[in-house]
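sanity check this record:

:::
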Amino acid sequence: MSSFTTNPVLLVDQTALQTNGTGHDASSPQYKGYHHMTWYVGNAKQAASYYVTRFGFKYMAFQGLETGHRCVSSLVITNGGVTFVICAPLRDRQNLEKDTSESEKQLLTEIHTHLGKHGDAVKDVAFEVNDARAVYHRAMKNGAVSVQEPATRRDEYGEVTTAIIRTYGDTTHTLVEKNNYRGMFMPGYRTIDQADPIQKYLPQISLEAIDHCVGNQDWGQMQAICD
């Protein structure tokens, strides 16, 4: 599995932890915690079902053909404070319709390439922040590599601003700002209201939060990453 951790000091100003007597200064960029982890897999329904039946996750939302996304299917599952987005390709790269957008082609190629190198694996570790633009620019100043500049998406529930940075390898960090968003997950996703029928026959498994992510390095590369 490809996943990694990062030091929040890269992303937020330490003075945000030392002001106002509450530990936070509302005017400073703040890291709130893990928002979700995105997996690239060969079969989204099968992978999501594994976590539902083995680890007590519940379906939250989805994105796919029904929401106008013809190339990639995504299932959002959650258990306590842990949220996974399970993404899988719906098409190969050679047989795309002529009106397929460039962004869809790029995402499809990215997923197929990632699967070829890593198999089913974590692609993105997302953090919720209070100001995605401020955290993004601070991270860039500290040496991060940009994948996506801050962009805002909207729907009837409000708006969410995201930015994506790369630290090392193929895994990325998405910075998520959703201070006033009232939707279940993110714009572009449709809520899943119905529970999996099998859950009533299974014991309840309660998770609280993601504690940490481990970054596995190639043989002999640990010192280079530390440097």
In short: The chain has a mean pLDDT of 87. Helices lie at 44-55, 102-118, 132-141, 222-226. The chain is about 20% helix and 30% strand. The CA atoms of residues 221 and 227 lie 10 Å apart.
